[in-house]
Write a structure and sequence with these properties.
11 helices; Rossmann fold; homotrimer; disordered N terminus; 323 residues; 2 domains
Chain lengths: 323, 323, 323
């Protein structure tokens, strides 16, 4: 099929692949966000929808991910679509016998209107899209991308603040490897006037190369070394996990770890009253449970639901269905 | 959400959790049974139902159970509802990374209207319900409870005899550990005049504590030691499996085992013509295959189908949908 | 249920099992093919279908097979039916505890209108059908049969040539063990005037017994030893995989292997312009990727889609639903 995988300033997503966050223009983002907002309204009304009735989407998950799997599943079924759920096809005979990804994709495309794929290898989504005559959504390709996660993070900011420019944010944790961090920075660099504070242990700081790139794209980046330096004016904190295993010297970890845990005290001392606290999940202790009930904590609320709305928007735009 | 988990004498199930059999009053049971009967009629008519259209239920099975999984799946889909099937999420990255059950539940609740959970650890269903703002049905929590199984057993008796009081029953097999046995005794103790014969190997007898408790609740319990003592007037036999492994002395097992196997001969000599023979399944030899065609054997017939009707009833009552 | 498993010359499939290819008469085949053609048209029109609305089919896969699983799944959902997906039930407690296949089947039949089963043991589908009061489709029973695969192969020929008699074909690869090869030969032997060339390594030739049988059924079989002997008049080539592991002497394999690989050169030198190149998939190198874009190559196109159409036809005929 003729597919447009290069950047486009048109808002038409019909039959397009979603492979990388870089394919989106600001206009694309706003088009998706507007649609997601309509989806949220649709769900709130509790009126069953038949928008995707008659469509079949294959969820092809080479790697387990119950969270992303459930989110896409819900997005499709909330709109009356059907799914074919294929988990761990690598254990099945065809793949075990040595079938190529291209052949597998060309099999599933015969049965469905859309393929949503998670795969452990970077670039696999692109390879699948090249083989397929139907659209492919990348739901995570190893250390590569997971564009709908980046969309939901930006949508959460947009929904809260009504804009994606002139925002002040704090990114915390593993800034060196974090896939969601890099996508978020790329997204924010599409808009002017954004100012981002970076808080990471020495060994997990944003790489000099990345720092240079994002500055060139227009982002203002300020590195801090302690949670006491978090500006009270920040619109959002985006917290991520710091893995103890990354440290060769445990005393280094012990020394820094408090700077990477959100507690009610930290919220009280450094968080503005209109900010939001985000986290891509799963968390394992870096945000204290007591913070969950803080209305500014959106990781277990808006962020998760927004993931579903974004996926409802993206799937229906690709399948050419309008509310 | 405001949830009523304590005993209630109202018949309103909307948005309630189903965690333990003890939460039901006799009125609750009759309300569920009446609804199950309507569901059975609905299925018999073969008219497709849209009762649960637009609803999404997450089946979150931390432990494999194709039987219970299929029964809930069928119950929901027979009524036009959709499911998100999550099996063995413990193998996925989030749980493997150490995410708490509460965080996992708060993720899935964003996508669905109801969570049905099976978990290997007793108390997990209660923990999930505490975290969730949507209703949770316990589909088995380890050695804890499996309330819809108890409901279907009682419904099978009710459907056959039109009452749950003044029944004579025989419970056979592992009365010490059997989860279904204990729930059934609890259910029968809600009604007066029930008389239960207990037949178990010495080492698998109902514990003195349980015996005392159930007698205090009003059940008449009579222990017997041989299948020749089964009263011919019994309305039902509820047979369960005696695991050979429970015996340290194999000759003990050999000595008693015939008392714990149903054969056509035993049916002929001890079973009344209007009784029913029940078993929670799976069976592995304790009921001879030749007994299957006896019309009084309901374990492969009414009991299984009733499981689906009961689950249709419970799910639609919780989701507030009336036929 | 009263089931007709013997050969029948009636075209009524309602509530019949599909266990073996041998149960089909030529009339049966044409009836299925006509229905499959209607299904193809239905899919092409892109009008959502409700033909199977209100029906539930259990996909009981004791052996992983994402390809066949997805094909049946798509077939059912394209027609508005619902599925209960049970994969690897052998790992669940009931089967692990030693439950018989008959008991398992009698459980699932209570929930559904049709069971589609894949099982590693030959004869399992027949055993399941004997236990079931609802129809059973064999989706592969070990080295036994996989009748819908044979149907889709014959349908692909029928759709292309408008007939199943007086065809010239070439079967290549593992003719000794290939399940699809044997079914195809059986199918072609139902019609007169078919002439089949056989190309296989010495150790993987059709067994003398099979050769004798198929000749007795009226097929003309001609053995060749080299791809240069492939007749240019052949209507179709049916290529299969030759497993290196079958050879004890690697130099034997090296000597013959080029005769068992399709290349653009071979297509150019030996393939007629109106022939089709078939393969049951998965392939692992025996057809060069460069051949894929040849319009005569139907393995990644017509064959896969026809599999879905055939399964749409078979399932709806069994469930008694007419377009």
């Amino acid at each position: 099929m003729p597919k447009t995988q290069t950047k486009t300033n048109t808002a038409t997503f019909e039959r397009r692949d979603i492979l990388s966050f870089d394919q989106f223009t600001p206009n694309d983002l706003f088009h998706i966000f507007t649609t997601a907002k309509e989806m949220a309204y649709q769900v709130k009304k509790k009126v069953p929808s038949d928008l995707l009735r008659g469509t079949i989407t294959t969820l092809l998950f080479y790697e387990p991910s119950s969270r992303t799997f459930a989110s896409f599943n819900a997005a499709i079924k909330r709109l009356g679509g059907q799914t074919i759920d294929i988990q761990n096809p690598g254990q099945t005979s065809s793949v075990a016998k040595g079938e190529t990804l291209a052949d597998t994709i060309r099999t599933f495309e015969a049965y469905s209107d859309l393929i949503i794929m998670r795969h452990p290898i970077k670039g696999a989504a692109k390879e699948a899209a090249n083989a397929a005559s139907i659209p492919v959504i990348n739901a995570g390709d190893g250390i590569g991308e997971h564009p709908t996660q980046a969309l939901l993070d930006l949508y959460t900011l947009y929904e809260k603040f009504g804009r994606l420019n002139h925002l002040t944010g704090v990114l915390v944790g593993d800034l060196l490897n974090g896939r969601t961090i890099h996508s978020l920075l790329r997204g924010l660099s599409l808009f002017e006037g954004n100012e981002i504070y970076l808080l990471a242990p020495q060994i997990l700081k944003l790489s000099p190369q990345d720092k240079q790139d994002f500055r060139k794209r227009g982002l203002k980046l300020i590195e801090i070394t302690n949670d006491k330096e978090i500006p009270k004016t920040a619109n959002f904190w985006y917290w991520t996990r710091v893995q103890k295993e990354r440290f060769t010297n445990l005393s280094d970890y012990e020394r820094v770890k408090t700077a990477f845990t959100v507690t009610p005290e930290l919220m009280k001392s450094r968080a503005g009253k209109d900010m939001i606290l985000m986290h891509p999940l799963p968390r394992v202790g870096e945000i204290a449970k007591a913070v969950d009930k803080d209305p500014r904590a959106v990781y277990l609320r808006a962020q998760i639901r927004n993931g579903m709305f974004i996926r409802m928007a993206v799937v229906s735009l690709i399948l050419g269905k309008k509310l």
